[in-house]
Request: fold
Amino acid sequence: MNIDDRDFMTADLVPRHDRIDLEQVWKRIDDEVSLFVARTPKSAERFQEAKESMVNGTANIWCNHWRMPDPRNDDFLLPHLWYWDRAKNQRCWDADGNEYVDYFYADGPTLWGHAPDDEVTRGIAEAVRSESFGCLVPNEEAVLATRLLQEMIDLKYWFMTLSASDANRNAISIARIVTGRRKVLSPNFGYMGAPEEGMYWKPQPNLPPVTRWPHYLPGHADPAVKIAEFNDLDSVEAALRDRDVAVFVTEPVMTDGGFVVPRPGYFEGVRELCDRYGTLLLIDETHTLASTPRGMFTELDLKGDMWTTGKPIAGGIPCGVLGMSEAVGDAYAAKVNDLSVPGGAGVLSFLGQGTTMAANPLAVRALRLALEHYYTDETYGRMVGAMDHLVRGMRGVIERRQVDFSITQTGARMHLNFVPTDSYTCLDAVRSIGLGGYHEYFNLFALNRGFVVMPWENMILTSPYTTEDDNDRFVAMFDECVGNLLGE
Reply:
């Protein structure tokens, strides 16, 4: 049965390969766990101390992903978290002095390298010494930064926030104000960061959306959320037909549960449907901004009404941005600047548009510098060139080993799929991660041999500092890993 015809409640999401014995793979995983424990005694000590002051021993919930769930016993694979000591360019060292080449870069914020000695970090350091961080008065750099954003993405108006999650929350609020509608449409398993509207999915096609996690209690019994299937225009139209959707929030390539790539004509169809039913189209490039210096928004000519990003946009300093078309920005301004309404323009500060520290001078300086020096053809040429080299080597291993794996590449970001082809549905993409043995073994095998990759899927990034030697050693590690999976 084609997996597209089944729902998440019944689908088998663990890939099956005749030449791979998963029982033997799990024995190898246990060996890797033991090796990790032996290599990281100081991390174990820090973890025990951390549990005395932080839930699960971490102040950031994302860090828990490093421990990875063990499906055999509903526990974590790793008995403790992994702690860093320092990092520079593409390298990092843990608390025990073990050295690693980073192919994760915190999922994007440090895409430009760790503490690189360049114009951006020097300019940020100068701002730390000379700027007020909490000045609620705009400066000239905000004008310069937003003009650079206009050159990068063909949208007229710009807001700055502290993260992509903040940018999406702002965008959803603006879309509701402009359209007078409440509901938000998202692709199934779509990602928009922390907004509550992104906490839902549709495990069964004919039932309403439900929260992704059983412990999550939403603020409304009637969520203002609709879910469509990526690459399915009939599904999108069915969601929009009632004309109650303010905005469709989507990535150009879905990246949060494996990679789902758009079929030819999909986004052209989405644009036409949004126009037909009066819904705004928001393109979230928090992840895909690693693909091209002008975003896939520009590369694919996506014609969105709004655009958001965060993570790497300001060289690692917390910052998000939100772009709006002239029509959306003017309609929004007409609403919030209506002085005939009690409160007048002052009501703007109570609409959830930004926070006190949004567009602070440090973030604005970092944004301006990053746009000038990082979002260039030269910088991306180095990053994408390094990824091209890595992908060639890994595909060579896959071909020589004759294993049904594949790689999906978008610029300087790629995903290793433990299935033979790209994914066009969220079910196929989740299955491609290889949870249930493949992913866990690959992640731990790489970590124990000095390579950092994403711990919840198989996403890999290359920075301007990634070298051919780094990549060649990674390919050799991958070759050994695949051979072990095959029992060869």
About this structure: The two ends are 31 Å apart (CA to CA).
